[in-house]
Amino acid sequence: MKYHGLRVAAYARSSTDAPHRLTEELRQLARIRGYCAANKMTIVSSAIEGAKIAVGAGDDQRDFEELVDRACSADRPFDAIVVASTSRVARRPGEFATYADRLSAGGVLLIAVDTSAANLLGKGA
Q1: Are residues 23 and 31 in contact, defined by beta-carbon separation less than 8 angstroms?
Q2: How far is it, in rounded angstroms, from Cα 16 to Cα 33?
Q3: What burial letters (b/e) apply to 89-117, b meaning 16+ CB within 10 Å?
Q4: Opening angle at CA 91, ends 88 and 112, nearest 5
Q5: What is the CATH T-level fold of the domain 7-120, as seen in this structure?
Q6: Where is the Resolvase/invertase-type recombinase catalytic domain (predicted)?
Q7: Mapping DSSP to helix (H, G, I), strand (E, B) and coil, where does residue 93 land?
């Protein structure tokens, strides 16, 4: 299997405010867990980012930025970051690809459950 054995970080982000925020975040995590189980990947880290008052999803995503920094560090604690949807990372054209390129330069995948991961490896893959 293509992703068998990968160590992954799960990332969920809500773009809605309470009261539905927790439900949306839990739904995303459930989709990620199911995808990882089906593909024999192990979730070794996770981050849930609450709703932000921002123009785009890329604004003020401290938890996601921290995951990217950790993924690209010398000890590389995980092989991929898995999100439920590309919109959880970026809404602006090219922003998702920028993250994918940054991660692929460090040998790390950025996988969106709702899209073919082969399209999300960045130009360095």
Answers
A1: no
A2: 21
A3: bbbeeeebbebbbbbbeeebbbbbbeeeb
A4: 40
A5: Rossmann fold (3.40.50)
A6: 8-124
A7: coil
Number of C-alpha atoms within 13 angstroms, CB side, residue 106?
23
Closest C-alpha to 114, from 31, 25, 7: 31
Q: Which amino acid is at 16?
A: T
Q: What is the pLDDT of residues 85-97, one digit of tens each?
A: 888 888 776 788 8
Length of the chain: 125
Q: Cα–Cα distance between 55 and 91 in angstroms, integer?
A: 9
What is the C-alpha separation between 18 and 11, in angstroms, rounded?
Answer: 19
Q: Please write the tens of the pLDDT for every residue from 7-38.
A: 999 999 876 665 666 688 889 999 999 999 99
Q: What are the phi and psi torsion angles at 117 (to 5°)?
A: -60, -25
Question: Quick one: angle between helices 95-105 and 62-71, nearest 10?
Answer: 30
The verdict on pTM exceeding 0.85 is no
Instruction: Let me know: does 82 contact 36? Beta carbons within 8 Å.
Output: yes
Residue spans of the domains in the chain: they are 7-120
